[in-house]
Amino acid sequence: MFRNYWKIAVRQLGKQKFYSFIKIGGFALGIATCLLITLYIRFELSFDRRIRGGGFPGVGDCTADDGNAGGAGGEGQSGREPPDGRVTRITG
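-> structure tokens emitted (92 positions)
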């Protein structure tokens, strides 16, 4: 039965070459587009899997270099840190 279907399909491809080209080309273009969209979505979602702990990757909070969380006057050791002594540093 499949042999007969195959013969009919090949015969139709031979008779209507331009129409067959449009059908096969459209099918191939649709599959390629679907694959590209799938790859793009997987790439974009992979960034969410890299973030662990709920923060942004590469950004961390730490205290002053000597471990002190802040000075008596309400500002950090060097005077440039925020009052609570937290410093944001970008790590590699």
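The chain has a mean pLDDT of 74.
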